[in-house]
Predict the structure of Origin recognition complex subunit 2.
Amino acid sequence: MSRVAGSSIFTFQKVKRGHSMAQTASELARTPGKSVTFSTTPSAEPSTPTRTGRSEKKVQFVSTTPHRLRKRMTTPSIRSDSDSELSPSDSGEDEDEEDKENSKTPRTPSKGLSAALYKTPAKKSKNTSEALGQPSMIEEYFEAHGSSKVLTSDRTLQRLNTPKLDREMLVQLLEGKPSCYSKEIQQLHNKHRKHFSKWMLQLQLGFSVMVYGLGSKKALLEDFRVSHLGQEIHLVVNGFFPSITLKSILNALTCDVLEHQGSFRTPSDQIQHITQTLKDSPDLHVYLLIHNIDGLMLRGEKTQSALGQLASLPNLHLVASIDHINGPLVWDQFQQSQFNWLWWECVTFQHYAEETSYENSLLVQQTGALALSSLTHVLRSLTPNARGIFKLLVKFQLENKDNPSYTGLSFQDFYQRCREAFLVNSDLTLRTQLTEFRDHKLIRTRKGADGVEYLLVAVEASTLMDFLENEEGD
């Protein structure tokens, strides 16, 4: 709408709501026969556009465009539509028209502005952190985890003012402190006793009974033995004993149970004899009760395979207990089929008093009495020549106890000493005796750098001296 007053014409155009100021400027610029020039330089006087036509008259136009919009109109923008500073109501068509108008009249920005607008950011160098002297994340990881120093606490039992106790004193103190849950423990025991008749039925049907759960099961199995196996032929094996071996179990079965007089060359011959004897006497039933079948000395593959062969016999019945959490991993699928276990959960919450009596405690002063008793017990079951061979090795080790470079007695030297003492007549006999010592964990064998086999008694020197004194006294 236009209004003429004197020699001045004021052009006023009402901007509809929702239209931007850029749209208004664009429409004015497209008016035919008119050329409108806008000045973006701030000045006190209003900008005066010139209009060309048949009659030139001065037109005074007051711009109402904001400063930001005027800057956008004069400077080419590289921003996207999402980063536009215009109002959200601007349509796409108006923006296209504005781009066309800007393309008709390109404007060259200044050097500083063009450098700021069109400068491509440089790629971040991989060695930026190294250049700055800061370690990378990989270096920080290896610095944190590559240290071999392990910090441990120095609060040990050695720093206590109270000295270590004797084993007898420790046992007396533990016995003098009864459990406050003895009534509940007895109720659990009575609950498990109700299943004894089922165990006997399952054993006669060809299954083997496995008892597991938290707490010692020795008292429970002993109760089962007294109440149901008292009139049967049975053998009890303490698997937690440190010197128990497969040979001792087979010897007890052949000599004590089957009353066989004679010797066998290998454990396979003994198993074959037991199998044939029980096969010839189908009415003979033998019950084998093993405490801690997962004991340290019974975990070997050969031992478990031999026990599996015995358990597969129709008239040999096996009852066992297990305490190690990974105990079932000892058997493979074939051995599982031989044992044919039926698992019974029997939680007793009783102390492992007898099972741990052969282990060293941090609260007990190590006097060597336990190792001495085990050593004496094992050697008394051997032949006189075997005891003489072991004594000869013990004496030589005590002679070199003050030698820090002593690594053991070589096999050839030991064989010559035993032959001079008339203890063996061949190296094969000596190796057979050494196998017996190795099975009972009495000696250790190692090969030196020259390939020679060396023998060493795996007992402390003080215990060996006490052992020789007891042997000489006897």
